[in-house]
Design goal:
Blueprint (H helix, E strand, L loop, with lengths): L2 E8 L7 E6 L9 E2 L7 H13 L1 E2 L5 E10 L7 E9 L2 E5 L10 E5 L15 E7 L1 H6 L6 H11 L2 E5 L8 H16 L3 E4 L5 H13 L3 E6 H4 L7 E3 L2 E4 L22 E5 L2 H11 L2 E4 L4 H16 L5 E5 L6 H12 L5 H6 L1 E3 L2 H10 L9
Parallel strand pairs: 1-6, 10-11, 10-16, 11-12, 12-15, 16-17, 17-18
Antiparallel strand pairs: 1-3, 2-9, 4-7, 5-6, 7-8, 13-14, 14-15
Helix pairs in contact: 4-5
Length: 371
């Protein structure tokens, strides 16, 4: 079987979205990049392709080699692809000339900023360039090239949205279960999204992720962070507190419960905005032991799934039988005709992280209620 050698770039914005391109005359979106010209090294190929196709200027020092991946080619039948994949350093230099040439001034756009603020204009053989979430790629919102579809889950995993309490509870088994789940998420190369607090089991989430080196994004309202409005810098309507060089983040001066050791802490205006934002950053929702706020968040996410607004798997980690009364209440809703049994069946219930992962991997989204 013929093999094509290419170089490809993984470009992400502050929200963790991936910049994918679609070439003219094709249907699948893919990582930017392309085939080498005679005598080019893989990094030289990528530098040229990014300049030609996206007017994006990088040097060898901006590239980090990830690995070489072999997969089926997207646009050539019965052909395999051997792809040298790179990630880009934090500073991306986009050409700024009005005529699309590369002789204008450059704009520096942080690779971890919200690059949607910069309108990415395709050039040369590129027909379209858009930002995709990992869920977009997984569910193929648009046709996705095999290399992109296979590499993204391998390198970046899935976002686990953890809902849990701001208290520790009366039994140490709850803390142990949270620590165990966070360890497991990191071991699977997945990442965490949660409410950004440092109290109770929420604090255990942040602390354990920080100690493990697992990527963990917190989302917290201004009020709970102890600020009157946006703090840090604003991108795309969200305010971010950015980690210091040592990986910690500055805590607002009056904040009492915002965690200060996260990969990133986002500030939002309201509790409703918090739920919306956490959902945007996640692929899977897990309810851990908690109180009214945990149940509110859990049911909001489950309702969004039932109505077809998301395709997030929603799960209960039933630590020490904690959720048994709630499960009985849901079964009563089904028995009394207020909830379809299909939605109860779609709710993942697991007693351990291992069982949780097994059920998530086998999970299929239910049909929307009014679809």
């Amino acid at each position: 079987m013929p093999i094509i050698r290419v170089s490809a770039a993984i470009i992400r914005n502050h929200d963790g979205q991936f910049l994918l391109v679609r070439k003219k005359g094709t249907t699948a979106f893919m990582f930017p990049g392309g085939k080498p010209e005679p005598g080019e090294t893989p990094d030289q190929t990528l530098i040229r392709e990014l300049d030609e196709e996206l007017n994006l200027r990088v040097g060898t020092e901006d590239l980090t080699f990830v690995g070489t991946f072999r997969t089926n080619a997207a646009n050539e039948a019965n052909t395999q692809l051997l792809a040298d994949v790179f990630t880009l350093d934090d500073s991306l230099r986009w050409g700024n000339s009005a005529d699309g040439s590369n002789d204008g001034d450059d704009i520096d756009v942080g690779n971890n900023d919200n690059n949607d603020a910069h309108d990415v204009t395709p050039y040369a053989e590129i027909d379209a360039a858009h930002w995709f979430t990992s869920e977009d790629i997984k569910t193929e919102r648009e046709p996705i090239a095999p290399l992109t579809r296979e590499v993204v889950p391998q390198l970046y995993g899935r976002g686990f949205l953890l809902f849990t309490g701001s208290a520790l509870g009366n039994n140490p088994v709850y803390r142990e279960a949270v620590e165990s789940l966070v360890h497991s998420i990191g071991a699977h190369n997945d990442h965490i999204v949660y409410g950004g607090g440092r109290a109770g089991l929420m604090g255990v989430v942040g602390n354990t992720a920080a100690e493990d080196g697992t990527s963990c994004i917190g989302v917290i309202p201004y009020l709970l962070a102890g600020v009157d409005g946006p703090n840090g810098f604003n991108q795309g309507g969200h305010s971010y507190v950015i980690p210091r060089a040592d990986g910690t983040v500055p805590t607002p001066s009056r904040g009492e419960i915002a965690h200060d050791r996260l990969t990133r802490l986002e500030l939002v205006p309201t509790m409703s905005a918090r739920k919306t934002r956490m959902g945007e950053l996640a692929d899977i929702v897990v309810g851990l032991p908690g109180g009214a706020g945990t149940v509110d968040e859990l049911f909001d996410a489950w309702t969004q799934q039932q109505l077809g607004y998301t395709q997030h798997a929603v799960a209960l980690l039933n630590v020490n039988g904690y959720w048994n009364p709630l499960i009985s209440a849901i079964e009563h809703m089904v028995a009394e005709g207020f909830l379809s049994s299909a939605y109860l069946e779609s709710l993942i219930i697991a007693d351990s992280p291992r069982e949780l992962y097994e059920k998530i991997d086998a999970w299929v989204p239910p049909a929307p209620k009014w679809g």
